[in-house]
Design a protein that fits this description.
Number of strands: 5
CATH architecture: Roll
Largest sheet: 5 strands, antiparallel
Number of domains: 1
Low-confidence stretches: none
Shape: elongated
Helix content: under 10%
Strand content: over 45%
CATH topology: Nuclear Transport Factor 2, Chain: A
Radius of gyration: 17 Å
Order of helices and strands: EEEEE
CATH class: Alpha Beta
């Protein structure tokens, strides 16, 4: 039986947020992930980008994208 287990999850140093024009914000998160597999450790990086807009003084989430490499 092939069994994969999460071995390590580390928040990366590339996580940040930025506001443009006072109305649009982009937040990014970076994580390094390691799975333990029967064939050895599998390492990869996950980047998550989220976009928000401000309307009538409130922030709203409008889009999220995940990249794995």
């Amino acid at each position: 039986m092939n069994k994969n287990n999460l071995k390590n999850l580390t928040k990366g140093f590339g996580s940040s947020g930025r506001i443009f024009n006072g109305q649009t914000a982009i937040k990014t998160k970076v994580a390094d992930v390691v799975f333990s597999t029967t064939e050895g450790d599998l390492h990869f990086k996950v980047i998550r980008a989220e976009t928000y807009i401000k309307d009538n003084g409130k922030w709203y989430f409008v889009l999220g994208k995940k990249l794995i490499f």
